[in-house]
């Protein structure tokens, strides 16, 4: 059961950020987990969609939890109130559309979601037709923000691929690199394609480039052996943590110990059930947030999250936390109120988002342009004793 966070903590966190910026569960202002006093007036209804069950549930639950904390803090200030209802899509596009329709029936005025790229692309077509403002915390495929009503908090897939190649070259991590990616997933393919292009431009030799699909994501023997035979000193994994845990386990069985480097999809690796976390030692990943950071904002958020949910937040929780504060900043900038319809709110927020700056957990001075993409700097972490530390 969730513990109630103190009103003092909620107010402290909210004042530090507000100026700058299970399935079907609902978090109204009166029952938010912070224990803060809700303000008067109608609440703006924010819908959330993501996987809270299934193989990527760690992402969806983190997004749901991070958003709940942010909403509770903002509501505790007594100004504009928010209510969130979160629907499970199990990382499935069809279920995501069903969830979206359910949230519309509920009266959703703003969508914070979806969490993963395939469902996000499917839902983005619906929000564009409805002129519903959509802010995805973590949908990184280019198609997630192809329409002018859609924005995101996280980096795009191509950005992650390009920045990863640059980092490997600039820090001389390896001369020969192998890539293992999911060709059936837009997230993985998008990062892969940009990585390969940038690697070639920077003179980084890719000696093995092997794909798998959602139908062949359990046995990676062939891909690992090809990387090993080619002499790859680093294996780039633009994939999710579940498959990465299998690759690390299977590489260990044949004594292959290259540097493993991934992106934000690897966040959650050390929490995979029945995975030997010692195999994650020295794995590197590019991600904008880690719970081990010592700045005041991160420390306060981690404390609040731990008190509410009994565990440390991952990057997806931080993305969602920033997403809610960004929505709130844009709402205040545009003068949006709860009595406005979703389409009017969308028009107002599209303009306001290009005018706000967010001092967030996932970046300082985050800004957005009309494309919906954020501008912020990446960070690289290395796993040491099960903890993400700055590389």
Automatic annotation (TrEMBL):
Residues 44-374 form the Leucine-binding protein domain. The keyword Signal applies. Keywords: Amino-acid transport, Signal, Transport. SUPFAM superfamilies: Periplasmic binding protein-like I. One of its GO terms (biological process) is amino acid transport. Residues 1-21 form the signal peptide. It holds the Pfam family Peripla_BP_6. Coiled coil: none annotated. Belongs to the leucine-binding protein family. This is Amino acid ABC transporter substrate-binding protein. It comes from Ruthenibacterium lactatiformans.
